[in-house]
Amino acid sequence: MNRCRIISALLFVLVCAGAVAQESYLWSFDRDPVGSVPSYLLAESNWVVMVDSGAPTQPNVLSATAAGCTNALGSLCVVQGFKLELGRLWTRVNVFSGAAGLVFRMRAADNFNVLMVTPDGSRLQLMAVRNGVPQELASSVLKTTFGRWHRMGVELDGRTIGCYFDGELRMTAAEDPMSVGKCAIGLIVAGGGRAHFDDLNVDVITAAEPARRGETVVQILLAGDRISIGDTVVTLKELVDRLTQRFDSAQRLLLVVDRNMDYERVEQVMKAAVTIGFEKISIEMRK
User: Fold this and answer.
1) Which of 164, 168, 146 is nearest to 155 (CA)?
2) Domain total of the chain
3) In CATH, what number is assigned to the domain containing residue 255?
4) 101 lies in the same domain as 27
5) 86 closest CA partner among 19, 135, 154
6) Do the Cβ atoms of 104 and 78 come closer than 8 Å?
7) Domain stop point among 179, 207, 235
8) pLDDT in tens, the chain (287 residues)
9) Is the N or the C terminus of the chain less surrounded, counting Cβ atoms within 10 Å?
Protein backbone atom coordinates (compact mmCIF):
# COMPACT_ATOMS: atom_id res chain seq x y z
CA MET A 1 0.00 0.00 0.00
CA ASN A 2 1.35 3.41 -0.98
CA ARG A 3 0.72 5.35 2.23
CA CYS A 4 2.17 8.61 0.95
CA ARG A 5 -0.34 8.61 -1.88
CA ILE A 6 -3.55 7.73 -0.09
CA ILE A 7 -2.97 9.46 3.24
CA SER A 8 -3.71 13.14 2.88
CA ALA A 9 -2.72 13.84 6.46
CA LEU A 10 -0.73 11.36 8.54
CA LEU A 11 0.06 7.97 9.97
CA PHE A 12 0.85 7.60 13.64
CA VAL A 13 1.24 4.70 16.05
CA LEU A 14 -0.19 4.66 19.56
CA VAL A 15 2.40 2.96 21.77
CA CYS A 16 0.93 0.86 24.57
CA ALA A 17 1.83 -2.03 26.83
CA GLY A 18 1.67 -5.53 25.36
CA ALA A 19 1.86 -6.72 21.79
CA VAL A 20 -1.02 -4.67 20.39
CA ALA A 21 -0.87 -1.14 19.05
CA GLN A 22 -3.17 1.32 17.35
CA GLU A 23 -2.17 2.52 13.90
CA SER A 24 -4.18 5.57 12.93
CA TYR A 25 -4.92 7.35 9.68
CA LEU A 26 -6.40 10.76 8.96
CA TRP A 27 -7.65 12.07 5.63
CA SER A 28 -8.21 15.78 6.24
CA PHE A 29 -9.00 17.15 2.71
CA ASP A 30 -7.20 20.37 3.75
CA ARG A 31 -4.27 19.81 1.38
CA ASP A 32 -6.36 18.76 -1.61
CA PRO A 33 -7.13 21.18 -4.48
CA VAL A 34 -10.49 22.92 -4.14
CA GLY A 35 -12.99 21.80 -6.78
CA SER A 36 -11.35 18.41 -7.30
CA VAL A 37 -12.11 14.82 -6.37
CA PRO A 38 -9.19 13.72 -4.12
CA SER A 39 -6.91 11.29 -5.93
CA TYR A 40 -7.07 8.78 -3.04
CA LEU A 41 -10.87 8.49 -3.31
CA LEU A 42 -12.85 6.44 -5.79
CA ALA A 43 -15.85 8.69 -6.37
CA GLU A 44 -17.94 10.41 -9.01
CA SER A 45 -17.69 14.13 -9.78
CA ASN A 46 -20.43 14.97 -7.27
CA TRP A 47 -17.80 14.49 -4.52
CA VAL A 48 -15.53 17.55 -4.48
CA VAL A 49 -13.27 19.42 -2.09
CA MET A 50 -14.48 22.88 -1.17
CA VAL A 51 -13.79 25.62 1.37
CA ASP A 52 -16.16 25.77 4.35
CA SER A 53 -15.53 28.61 6.81
CA GLY A 54 -17.79 26.90 9.37
CA ALA A 55 -15.97 23.57 9.37
CA PRO A 56 -14.52 22.33 12.70
CA THR A 57 -11.06 21.96 11.10
CA GLN A 58 -10.53 24.46 8.32
CA PRO A 59 -10.18 25.28 5.53
CA ASN A 60 -11.48 22.38 3.43
CA VAL A 61 -14.27 19.83 3.52
CA LEU A 62 -15.44 17.07 1.19
CA SER A 63 -18.79 18.08 -0.27
CA ALA A 64 -21.22 15.60 -1.80
CA THR A 65 -24.70 15.55 -3.25
CA ALA A 66 -27.01 12.71 -4.19
CA ALA A 67 -29.27 14.90 -6.32
CA GLY A 68 -29.88 13.10 -9.60
CA CYS A 69 -28.14 9.95 -8.37
CA THR A 70 -29.40 6.90 -10.26
CA ASN A 71 -28.19 4.41 -7.64
CA ALA A 72 -31.09 3.62 -5.29
CA LEU A 73 -28.59 3.06 -2.46
CA GLY A 74 -27.13 6.56 -2.80
CA SER A 75 -23.81 8.00 -3.92
CA LEU A 76 -20.68 6.44 -2.42
CA CYS A 77 -17.01 7.36 -2.28
CA VAL A 78 -14.40 4.80 -1.28
CA VAL A 79 -10.84 5.22 0.00
CA GLN A 80 -8.61 3.55 -2.57
CA GLY A 81 -6.08 0.95 -1.50
CA PHE A 82 -7.14 0.90 2.16
CA LYS A 83 -8.97 -1.80 4.12
CA LEU A 84 -10.09 -2.02 7.74
CA GLU A 85 -10.75 -5.16 9.77
CA LEU A 86 -10.62 -4.20 13.47
CA GLY A 87 -10.65 -0.70 14.89
CA ARG A 88 -12.58 2.57 14.74
CA LEU A 89 -13.83 4.71 11.86
CA TRP A 90 -15.25 8.21 12.36
CA THR A 91 -15.94 11.52 10.67
CA ARG A 92 -17.54 14.89 11.24
CA VAL A 93 -20.57 15.47 9.05
CA ASN A 94 -22.94 18.35 8.34
CA VAL A 95 -26.11 17.08 6.66
CA PHE A 96 -28.04 19.80 4.85
CA SER A 97 -30.70 17.47 3.43
CA GLY A 98 -31.32 13.78 2.83
CA ALA A 99 -29.14 11.15 4.48
CA ALA A 100 -25.37 10.79 4.96
CA GLY A 101 -22.91 8.64 6.83
CA LEU A 102 -20.09 6.09 6.94
CA VAL A 103 -19.56 3.00 4.79
CA PHE A 104 -17.57 0.00 6.11
CA ARG A 105 -17.25 -3.76 5.66
CA MET A 106 -17.50 -3.00 1.94
CA ARG A 107 -16.77 -5.98 -0.33
CA ALA A 108 -18.63 -4.70 -3.39
CA ALA A 109 -20.75 -1.75 -4.52
CA ASP A 110 -23.86 -3.68 -3.43
CA ASN A 111 -22.38 -5.39 -0.37
CA PHE A 112 -21.48 -3.19 2.60
CA ASN A 113 -22.56 -1.85 5.99
CA VAL A 114 -23.56 1.75 6.56
CA LEU A 115 -24.17 4.02 9.55
CA MET A 116 -26.18 7.08 8.59
CA VAL A 117 -28.46 9.86 9.73
CA THR A 118 -31.88 9.18 8.18
CA PRO A 119 -33.36 11.64 5.62
CA ASP A 120 -35.58 13.36 8.18
CA GLY A 121 -32.74 13.63 10.71
CA SER A 122 -34.73 11.76 13.35
CA ARG A 123 -32.71 8.55 13.62
CA LEU A 124 -29.22 7.12 13.51
CA GLN A 125 -29.51 3.95 11.46
CA LEU A 126 -27.17 0.98 11.06
CA MET A 127 -27.85 -1.10 7.96
CA ALA A 128 -26.36 -4.07 6.14
CA VAL A 129 -26.67 -3.98 2.35
CA ARG A 130 -26.48 -7.41 0.76
CA ASN A 131 -26.90 -7.85 -3.00
CA GLY A 132 -28.25 -4.32 -3.13
CA VAL A 133 -30.97 -4.92 -0.53
CA PRO A 134 -30.68 -2.88 2.70
CA GLN A 135 -31.64 -4.41 6.05
CA GLU A 136 -31.76 -2.45 9.29
CA LEU A 137 -29.58 -3.89 12.07
CA ALA A 138 -30.24 -1.21 14.70
CA SER A 139 -31.46 2.37 15.06
CA SER A 140 -31.50 5.13 17.66
CA VAL A 141 -33.66 8.25 17.99
CA LEU A 142 -31.80 11.51 17.34
CA LYS A 143 -32.49 15.09 18.29
CA THR A 144 -30.50 16.79 15.58
CA THR A 145 -30.91 19.71 13.21
CA PHE A 146 -29.85 19.89 9.58
CA GLY A 147 -27.04 22.37 8.94
CA ARG A 148 -25.03 21.58 12.10
CA TRP A 149 -21.80 19.63 12.50
CA HIS A 150 -21.90 16.26 14.25
CA ARG A 151 -19.35 13.54 14.91
CA MET A 152 -20.29 9.97 14.04
CA GLY A 153 -18.34 6.73 14.13
CA VAL A 154 -18.27 2.95 14.38
CA GLU A 155 -16.13 0.62 16.46
CA LEU A 156 -15.39 -2.88 15.14
CA ASP A 157 -14.00 -5.64 17.37
CA GLY A 158 -14.95 -8.61 15.20
CA ARG A 159 -17.97 -9.51 17.35
CA THR A 160 -20.06 -6.36 17.69
CA ILE A 161 -20.49 -3.02 15.93
CA GLY A 162 -20.56 -0.03 18.26
CA CYS A 163 -22.25 3.09 16.83
CA TYR A 164 -21.38 6.54 18.15
CA PHE A 165 -22.91 9.98 17.65
CA ASP A 166 -21.38 13.14 19.11
CA GLY A 167 -19.12 11.04 21.33
CA GLU A 168 -21.95 8.92 22.81
CA LEU A 169 -22.41 5.18 22.24
CA ARG A 170 -25.95 5.09 20.84
CA MET A 171 -26.36 1.42 19.91
CA THR A 172 -24.62 -1.87 19.22
CA ALA A 173 -25.32 -4.80 16.90
CA ALA A 174 -23.83 -8.26 16.48
CA GLU A 175 -21.41 -8.65 13.57
CA ASP A 176 -22.20 -11.11 10.83
CA PRO A 177 -19.18 -13.48 11.00
CA MET A 178 -19.23 -13.73 7.21
CA SER A 179 -18.73 -9.96 6.85
CA VAL A 180 -15.73 -9.69 9.22
CA GLY A 181 -12.41 -9.21 7.45
CA LYS A 182 -10.32 -6.55 5.74
CA CYS A 183 -12.81 -4.50 3.76
CA ALA A 184 -13.01 -1.11 2.09
CA ILE A 185 -14.32 2.01 3.83
CA GLY A 186 -15.90 5.22 2.62
CA LEU A 187 -18.69 7.78 2.85
CA ILE A 188 -22.24 7.99 1.52
CA VAL A 189 -24.97 10.52 0.74
CA ALA A 190 -28.49 9.31 -0.06
CA GLY A 191 -32.10 10.35 -0.29
CA GLY A 192 -31.29 13.09 -2.81
CA GLY A 193 -29.39 14.83 -0.05
CA ARG A 194 -26.33 17.05 0.37
CA ALA A 195 -23.64 16.91 3.05
CA HIS A 196 -20.17 18.12 4.02
CA PHE A 197 -17.57 15.84 5.61
CA ASP A 198 -14.67 17.24 7.64
CA ASP A 199 -11.90 14.65 8.10
CA LEU A 200 -12.13 10.87 7.85
CA ASN A 201 -10.32 9.08 10.67
CA VAL A 202 -9.40 5.41 11.14
CA ASP A 203 -7.80 3.72 14.16
CA VAL A 204 -6.57 0.26 13.17
CA ILE A 205 -5.78 -2.37 15.80
CA THR A 206 -2.50 -3.90 14.71
CA ALA A 207 0.70 -5.51 15.97
CA ALA A 208 3.09 -3.20 17.81
CA GLU A 209 5.98 -1.85 15.76
CA PRO A 210 9.49 -1.79 17.29
CA ALA A 211 11.47 1.44 17.28
CA ARG A 212 13.90 1.79 14.39
CA ARG A 213 17.56 1.60 15.25
CA GLY A 214 19.34 4.96 15.19
CA GLU A 215 16.07 6.88 15.12
CA THR A 216 16.01 10.37 16.66
CA VAL A 217 12.96 11.10 18.82
CA VAL A 218 11.50 14.56 19.44
CA GLN A 219 9.27 14.49 22.53
CA ILE A 220 6.32 16.84 23.18
CA LEU A 221 4.09 16.82 26.27
CA LEU A 222 0.37 17.55 25.89
CA ALA A 223 -1.36 17.99 29.26
CA GLY A 224 -4.43 20.04 30.15
CA ASP A 225 -4.35 23.07 27.86
CA ARG A 226 -0.54 23.12 27.70
CA ILE A 227 1.97 22.12 25.05
CA SER A 228 5.51 21.60 26.37
CA ILE A 229 8.90 20.88 24.84
CA GLY A 230 11.13 19.80 27.70
CA ASP A 231 10.37 22.23 30.54
CA THR A 232 9.20 25.01 28.21
CA VAL A 233 5.48 25.69 27.70
CA VAL A 234 4.78 26.90 24.15
CA THR A 235 1.85 27.97 22.00
CA LEU A 236 0.90 25.98 18.90
CA LYS A 237 2.55 28.61 16.69
CA GLU A 238 5.76 28.51 18.77
CA LEU A 239 5.73 24.71 18.53
CA VAL A 240 5.43 24.87 14.74
CA ASP A 241 8.31 27.39 14.54
CA ARG A 242 10.58 25.21 16.70
CA LEU A 243 9.77 21.97 14.89
CA THR A 244 10.31 23.65 11.53
CA GLN A 245 13.74 24.90 12.59
CA ARG A 246 14.81 21.49 13.96
CA PHE A 247 13.12 19.18 11.48
CA ASP A 248 15.05 16.20 10.13
CA SER A 249 13.45 13.49 7.99
CA ALA A 250 15.02 10.80 10.23
CA GLN A 251 13.12 12.02 13.29
CA ARG A 252 10.12 10.43 14.94
CA LEU A 253 7.77 12.73 16.86
CA LEU A 254 6.66 11.35 20.24
CA LEU A 255 3.56 12.95 21.75
CA VAL A 256 3.15 12.18 25.46
CA VAL A 257 -0.56 12.82 25.98
CA ASP A 258 -2.50 13.21 29.23
CA ARG A 259 -5.62 11.00 29.15
CA ASN A 260 -7.83 14.03 29.83
CA MET A 261 -6.35 16.01 26.93
CA ASP A 262 -8.81 17.40 24.40
CA TYR A 263 -8.52 15.21 21.28
CA GLU A 264 -9.00 18.17 18.95
CA ARG A 265 -5.88 19.78 20.46
CA VAL A 266 -3.93 16.59 19.78
CA GLU A 267 -5.28 16.59 16.22
CA GLN A 268 -4.10 20.20 15.73
CA VAL A 269 -0.58 19.25 16.79
CA MET A 270 -0.57 16.19 14.51
CA LYS A 271 -1.73 18.19 11.51
CA ALA A 272 0.95 20.82 12.16
CA ALA A 273 3.62 18.10 12.37
CA VAL A 274 2.51 16.54 9.08
CA THR A 275 2.58 19.93 7.36
CA ILE A 276 6.18 20.32 8.52
CA GLY A 277 7.09 16.92 7.10
CA PHE A 278 6.99 14.33 9.88
CA GLU A 279 6.01 10.97 8.40
CA LYS A 280 5.57 8.98 11.60
CA ILE A 281 4.24 10.12 14.97
CA SER A 282 4.07 7.99 18.11
CA ILE A 283 1.57 8.72 20.86
CA GLU A 284 2.11 7.55 24.42
CA MET A 285 -0.85 7.87 26.77
CA ARG A 286 0.03 9.11 30.25
CA LYS A 287 -2.06 8.15 33.28
Assistant:
1) 164
2) 2
3) 3.30.420.270
4) yes
5) 154
6) no
7) 207
8) 333 223 333 444 444 434 445 677 889 899 899 999 999 999 988 999 999 999 998 899 999 998 877 677 889 999 999 999 988 999 999 999 999 999 999 999 999 999 999 888 889 999 999 999 999 999 999 877 788 999 999 999 888 999 999 988 999 999 988 888 899 999 999 988 999 999 999 988 764 444 444 456 777 888 877 888 877 788 888 888 888 876 665 677 777 877 666 667 777 888 788 788 777 777 776 65
9) C
